[in-house]
Amino acid sequence: MARPEQVLLLEPQHELKFRGPFSDVVTTNLKLSNPTDRNVCFKVKTTAPRRYCVRPNSGIIDAGTSINVSVMLQPFEYDPNEKSKHKFMVQSMLAPPDMTDMEGVWKEAKPEELMDSKLRCVFDMPVENEKTHDMESNKMSSSLLKSESSALPTKSLSSTLDDGEVKKIMEECKRLQMEAQRLREENKQIREDDGLRMRKSNVMSSQHASGSMKREEGLSARSVALILLFFIIGVIVGKLVL
């Protein structure tokens, strides 16, 4: 069985327009009018309940009156290339004369008693804000590309070295450190040996000098003795001749 036509008058009838920028809450109003002589229960539903706050989202519209429903779009990152698929539905039914529990009435309502109207959401971004958004998007994209390009050499370098090559490099570093330590120890030993040889040579030089002096003193004494001996012999020979 086909559902009855909507008795409420909606303004706007088909679209809910939200005008940006969308960096803050954007509110649009939906007017529901009841032209009948009976009270009407209504509910406002959406396909994206986390993106919108609706006040009031349900209630009763007295006969011949109207009500304004505030639909508040929560802040989000606007993408002009993304088409909005959000929709709203206004559901209504004639209120029973002796109604005391509205929730109970909704639960017990028959499908043929329910009326609904659907509206789609339209996002309208001003030209200036759209240009600004495009510029910011381009800046973000360029900065992201720069950061990625600067990170590429490091990533490519690390990716070219596998575990085996890294292990070989570490072993080579260790071997070079041990070789440097060995050279330092050999250099220290050579310096110590040179010092010892220098001290020995100094001692030997001093001993040689003292020996030479003693030999010279010995030679001088023998020369004096020989001269005296020759002098005495000469004196004796002279006396014998005379």
UniProtKB/TrEMBL annotation:
Major localisation: endoplasmic reticulum
Swiss-Prot/TrEMBL keywords: Acetylation, Coiled coil, Endoplasmic reticulum, Isopeptide bond, Membrane, Phosphoprotein, Transmembrane, Transmembrane helix, Ubl conjugation, Unfolded protein response
UniProt key word Acetylation: yes
InterPro entries: Ig-like_fold (IPR013783), MSP_dom (IPR000535), PapD-like_sf (IPR008962), VAP (IPR016763)
GO biological process: endoplasmic reticulum membrane organization; endoplasmic reticulum-plasma membrane tethering; regulation of heart contraction; response to unfolded protein; swimming behavior
Gene Ontology MF terms: FFAT motif binding
Domain MSP positions: 7-124
Start-end of Low complexity biased regions: 138-150
Membrane-topology annotation of the record: Single-pass type IV membrane protein
Segment forming the signal sequence: none
Cell compartments where the protein resides: Endoplasmic reticulum membrane
Biased composition regions of type Basic and acidic residues, renumbered to the chain: 187-197
Region feature (Disordered): 132-159, 187-215
Pfam families: Motile_Sperm (PF00635)
Domain of life: Eukaryota
Residue ranges of the TM segments: 223-241
Gene3D superfamilies for the chain: Immunoglobulins
GO cellular-component term (any): endoplasmic reticulum membrane
Function: Endoplasmic reticulum (ER)-anchored protein that mediates the formation of contact sites between the ER and endosomes via interaction with FFAT motif-containing proteins such as STARD3 or WDR44. Interacts with STARD3 in a FFAT motif phosphorylation dependent manner. Via interaction with WDR44 participates in neosynthesized protein export. Participates in the endoplasmic reticulum unfolded protein response (UPR) by inducing ERN1/IRE1 activity. Involved in cellular calcium homeostasis regulation.
Entry similarity comment: Belongs to the VAMP-associated protein (VAP) (TC 9.B.17) family.
Protein name per the record: VAMP (vesicle-associated membrane protein)-associated protein B and C
The organism of origin for this protein: Fundulus heteroclitus (Killifish)
